[in-house]
Structures are given as structure tokens and as C-alpha cells.
Specification:
alpha+beta; Zincin-like; two-stranded antiparallel ribbon; 5 strands; globular
């Protein structure tokens, strides 16, 4: 918890008006996760990985809720947000997209936010040979978090293994293939 003092200082200076407020004309935010939940998940990442989450705590990603069928600018490419997607992290814009009916009382939904925050921590702390390599670790940590809460993650590990390899792709592998 090397960064907790910074987090407290940063989050106490935010006002509700600028909390998780995105910039840009096409982003719609409706009831994103609250600051405390993000802090709690960052603490979990800090305690369960070697990643330094200080920079993320100081400048957290914008969290945007999207409806299936919405077009989003994901890493400078227009894509349609659709099932089975539950979340995406755009490292270029530091934005986490979650499905609009995201519920902070549902541990599986919170797990999706954790997964995307893990991606944020991965990219903040390390160079990756390809973005696919981040998925294996993110899913392993996501599963550990769910298991700690008595929830079977029920992930398709064989599929995740193959999709976590550096191969030439022209799209995010999870845009078309369910992982559970």
C-alpha cells in the first residue's frame, strides 16, 4: 500500500462534478463505479502483484458505460460494443468501457472492472511484446479475485491460453469469441 497516502490526497480533492468525467463528444457516462471501489480494486492489485499502481491512483482511467450496439473509438479504431464483451481498456486514451447495465453489487461485474484495471496496471508498468500477452495474467488475477469471494470464474482456460499468444490479428480476440 505504498501509494495509499497519495490516493487519499488525490481522491479527496476531486469533486463530484469532475469525478470520472470524460472528455470528447461521443462518450456517455452513466453511474460509473465510485472512487472507493476503484481504490479498493487498486489496493487488491497492489497487494497481489508487483505492479506499482501509484500513477493509476493519481490519474485513474475514465470509466464509461456503453450499451451493446454502441460504436466506440477503441485504440483509434471504430468498433461496435457487443456481447460477449463486458469490458475493454483503451490504453491510448486511458478509458475503461463497461457494459451499461454494470452493477457494483454483482461481484462478477466488479471482477470485469478489476480485469480492466489490471490491464491498466500492466501497461503502466511493463512493455509487452503484444497486447494479447496481457490477457493470460489478467484472467488469472481476475479468477483469483473471484475465487477469494467464493465464485467459480468458469473461464475457458484453453481458449484464453490460445488467445493470449502473440500472433498477427486484425481484431481483439474477445470481440468474437466467448471465453466462458
Amino acid at each position: 500500500m505504498r501509494w495509499l497516502c497519495s490516493v487519499t490526497l488525490v481522491f479527496t480533492t476531486l469533486s463530484p462534478a469532475n469525478e470520472f468525467t470524460p472528455s470528447g463528444p461521443d462518450i456517455s457516462v452513466t453511474h460509473p463505479p465510485n472512487q472507493q471501489l476503484v481504490v479498493d480494486l487498486l489496493i487488491w492489485i497492489d497487494e497481489n502483484t508487483d505492479y506499482d499502481v501509484t500513477a493509476i491512483a493519481i490519474d485513474p482511467p475514465i470509466i464509461v458505460l456503453k450499451t451493446y450496439g454502441d460504436s466506440i473509438d477503441y485504440e483509434n479504431e471504430a468498433i461496435i460494443f457487443h456481447e460477449p464483451l463486458k469490458g475493454l481498456y483503451d490504453k491510448e486514451r486511458n478509458i475503461i468501457y463497461l457494459k451499461k447495465h454494470w452493477n457494483h453489487n454483482d461481484a462478477k461485474h466488479v471482477g470485469v472492472l478489476l480485469h480492466e484495471l489490471i490491464h491498466c496496471a500492466q501497461y503502466t508498468n511493463k512493455e509487452w511484446p503484444c497486447w494479447q500477452k496481457t490477457e493470460w495474467e489478467a484472467y488469472k488475477l481476475h479468477a483469483a479475485w473471484l475465487t477469494e469471494r467464493g465464485i467459480d470464474p468458469d473461464f475457458n482456460w484453453i481458449l484464453i491460453f490460445f488467445l493470449s499468444r502473440c500472433e498477427q490479428r486484425d481484431h481483439h480476440p474477445f470481440l468474437d469469441i466467448p471465453t466462458r
